[in-house]
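As the next step, I selected for study one protein, both as residues and as discrete backbone shape codes, as given directly below:
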Amino acid sequence: NDPTIFLKIARLTPEMINMILKLGPCQPKAKDLPNSQFPKVGNRCFHEAWYYRKLPDGKMMHRDWLTYSPDINRVFCLHCMLFGKKSKKAWVSDGFCKFQNGSISLMGHETTDAHVEASLKVKMRELTLPLIPLIVEEQKKQVAFNREIVGQLIEITKYLGYHSLAFRGHREHWSSINKGNFKDLVELLAKYSPVISIHVSNLQIS
């Protein structure tokens, strides 16, 4: 999940963004790198301690937005890369490497309006992410349900047409005794077909 991998993609699709968020930031430790250390830039290097921020009450907060690229030895803001429209290039495209001022720069970036807005969008997306498969599945069920209704109504239409029977009656309200051949057959079918029964109930309510 090196951030430079998806930097090369011109436009990230919603599916790609979801995948990147699931992977999370690239936060290797020094022991995971060649020579077991972060490369130096001007005698200064990145510190894995920066993956966390010490809060005033002494608690440590994980910087889930900070992502390191082992490939180019620079850090990026994952949240701003995905949703930051006004963030500085150093955090979204060029990469930040002024490690001599690293700690101060990190705190400075995470308090900018652009970063806060991007992080809020990430949090909202993460909250809705588990719901997406449920919504898609529900849509599939609704499509299948509608297709079955249409299919059965087409069969009624074909039956009436084949026997040259009139479709409509003089009074077509659902409360009428004689609603016409089409609606009468729909009501008859509703006694045996659950989907048509639901369809008729919905029509009567509306």
